[in-house]
Write a structure and sequence with these properties.
Blueprint: E1 2-7, H1 10-21, E2 25-30, E3 35-37, E4 42-44, H2 47-54, E5 59-60, H3 72-85, E6 89-93, H4 101-104, E7 111-115, E8 123-124, H5 127-134, E9 138-145, E10 155-162, H6 169-192, E11 208-209, H7 225-234, E12 241-245, E13 248-258, E14 273-277, E15 281-285, E16 290-297, E17 304-305, H8 306-312
Parallel strand pairs: 1-2, 1-6, 2-5, 6-7, 8-11
Antiparallel strand pairs: 3-4, 7-9, 9-10, 12-13, 13-16, 14-15, 15-16, 16-17
């Protein structure tokens, strides 16, 4: 079976590696264009492109695949290239570009997507982060047949995965990437044998995982400690939850929600630091409960456990906000 692969970040690169190592012929890889990143704003290639180039797989990086956009001439050339590969199926994983009907119709066996949620819950761009933020007990991977709607296509395979209490978006990403990589190999082997059954997504239970905006990562201590602890986990490693303390923006990487009274300490107004020492850590009053900040980072500094952080950044008798 000859495959066309479309993907951009590490989640997709794990799947590409799994397909390549399983012996599938990768006719062509599509990935988003190189973009400037980092302090020096140097052009960075995507993890998918890096893997493809390293293993001698052809890569193309169109700005768009739509025929009604400013780069329509480039899109037409890419369409012609896709048709010329003679591939059987397109596998898509976190590609980041819309596939128009004109592309979806090219592969003989259609386009198959690896989506990191239990569809129809968390359709869209950030299913891993939104599942943690919402307090979901489980998530998983859905292999689905693509159509023009946003993650609305028929489901081909689905596997569930519990979300551990200490899972961050980073740790859950790695688990789901490995799961999805195994599932897509199994799915394509079944497809080769003509045995992939499709099931329509349920009409009820659809939610949308909107793209993460950096401003969302600011903690709101008027919310519960549980909600803030979930936000810290959901936005680790990107963009990183933060709060402003005495005019300084602190990144917050690990935290624990405690009951309304922690160690007999009286509660204060939301954002009030109730304790800040090596024994208790940094305890902050919330709208409900207390948030224990375990790993913090000041601008230009390193991530530090609270005990080490407090040695150079005293926080007692103050308030976030």
């Amino acid at each position: 079976m000859k495959i066309l692969f479309a993907g951009t970040p590490e989640f997709a690169a794990v799947a590409l590696r799994s397909l390549h190592e399983a012996g599938f012929e990768i006719a062509l890889v599509l990935s988003q264009p190189d973009r400037p990143a980092g302090r020096g704003m140097q052009l960075q290639t995507s993890p998918v492109k890096q893997y493809a180039v390293t293993h001698g797989i052809a890569v193309t990086q169109p700005a768009s695949l739509r025929l009604d956009c400013k780069s329509a001439h480039e899109a037409r050339e890419v369409h012609a290239l896709l048709r010329a590969t003679g591939h059987d199926v397109m596998v898509v994983a976190a590609y980041g570009l819309i596939l128009p009907r004109s592309v979806l119709d090219i592969p003989r066996l259609g386009c198959i997507n690896i989506h990191a949620s239990l569809l129809p819950r968390w359709r869209g761009a950030a299913p891993i982060q939104r599942a943690i933020e919402a307090g979901d007990a489980e998530t998983g991977v859905t292999i689905m047949q693509m159509e023009e709607g946003l993650d609305t296509g028929p489901m081909l395979q689905i596997e569930r995965l519990p979300i551990a209490p200490d899972d961050t978006a980073g740790s859950l990403h790695d688990k789901l990437a490995a799961l999805g990589a195994n599932m897509i190999v199994q799915a394509l082997r079944q497809l080769e044998q003509g045995g992939l059954a499709a099931t329509s997504q349920p009409a009820e239970g659809a939610t949308y995982a909107t793209k993460i905006n950096k401003h969302e990562a600011q903690l709101d201590f008027s919310q519960s400690a549980v909600a803030n602890a979930r936000k810290i986990r959901a936005f680790n490693p990107f963009p990183g939850a933060f709060a402003v303390f005495n005019g300084v923006t602190l990144k917050l990487w690990q935290a624990q929600a405690l009951p309304a009274v922690a160690g007999g300490l009286p509660l204060g107004l939301p954002g009030q630091v109730l304790a800040a020492n090596a024994q208790d850590g940094v305890l902050v009053a919330c709208g409900e409960g207390v948030l224990r900040l375990a790993v913090l980072q000041k601008p230009g500094g390193k991530r530090l456990p609270s005990a080490g952080f407090l040695q150079g950044f005293p926080m007692e008798n103050c308030r976030f906000g």
